[in-house]
Specification:
Number of helices: 9
Distance between the termini: 30 Å
Low-confidence stretches: none
Largest sheet: 3 strands, antiparallel
Mean pLDDT: 90
Helix content: 40-55%
Shape: elongated
Structural class: mainly alpha
Oligomer: single chain
CATH topology of the largest domain: hpI Integrase, Chain A
CATH class of the largest domain: Mainly Alpha
CATH superfamily of the largest domain: Intergrase catalytic core
Number of domains: 2
CATH architecture of the largest domain: Orthogonal Bundle
Radius of gyration: 21 Å
Strand content: under 5%
Strand order of the largest sheet: 1-2-3
Number of strands: 3
Length: 228
């Protein structure tokens, strides 16, 4: 996984999930675990453990990584029916406006605006560098995003104005958003900013920073943007 440049967070998650899997069959030689046993374990997670869809999917990926990537086995698909189908919570445009208006600190406002108007994940937000803001092409470059791929997203004119105002006040050197000591801003601090602004805006929906990404995509689709 390190050779394939998986993040430390993913490596830790996969290790824990795969450990749970092989401990479930602790009396069986790992080389004798077959496809039906894998399916049985996944049903155990669903029926007995009642884990979330996300947890179950991560378990599948961890198991598949061992049998397909480490051992070089044939790629397989494991289908486990679930009743759970939850749509993501979305903030409408009026709620987004309220959220940003109550965020008075220009640095905090810039973070939430970038997450929303460029559709960034939380991990991507803290990794943006000054050099990733391309005002000439009005794009934001996201380096080594999910799936270890670089991509570009939108840079709105209003966000650019806020970023310029923020830059004059804080003068970051490497990372677009830097902590008090000059390093990367922490994930927890951005989550706290979002929580505080949601409360001030009187929004009662259960939302997180990632909600801004879902809202970004939904609003683009509603305004007629091509899905691709």
């Amino acid at each position: 996984m390190k050779e394939l440049r998986y993040s430390e967070k993913t490596i830790k998650t996969y290790k824990g999930l795969f450990e749970e899997f092989i401990n479930y069959y602790h009396k069986v030689d790992i080389n004798r675990i077959n496809e039906s046993m894998i399916t049985a374990f996944l049903r155990y997670l669903e029926m007995d453990r009642k884990v979330s869809t996300s947890y179950q999917n991560q378990s599948i990926n961890a198991i598949k990584f061992h049998f397909e990537r480490v051992l070089g086995g044939q790629r397989k698909v494991y289908l486990v029916d679930r009743e759970e189908k939850r749509l993501p919570v979305i903030l409408n445009e009026e709620e987004i406006g309220r959220l940003l208006n109550v965020t008075e600190n220009i640095k905090h406002k810039a973070k939430l605006m970038l997450a929303y108007s460029s559709g960034l994940r939380l991990g991507e937000l803290i990794n943006v560098k000054l050099t990733d803001i391309d005002s000439g092409r009005m794009q934001v470059r996201i380096v080594q995003a999910k799936g270890k791929k670089d991509r570009h997203s939108l840079l709105s004119i209003r966000l650019l104005e806020v970023l310029r105002e923020y830059f004059k006040m804080y003068k970051p050197k490497v990372w677009l958003f830097e902590g008090a000591t000059g390093g990367q801003y922490s994930v927890g601090s951005i989550q706290a900013i979002m929580k505080d602004s949601v409360k001030k805006a009187g929004i009662r929906k259960k939302v997180s920073v990632h909600t801004l990404r879902h809202s970004f995509a939904t609003h683009l689709l509603e305004s007629g943007t091509d899905l691709r």
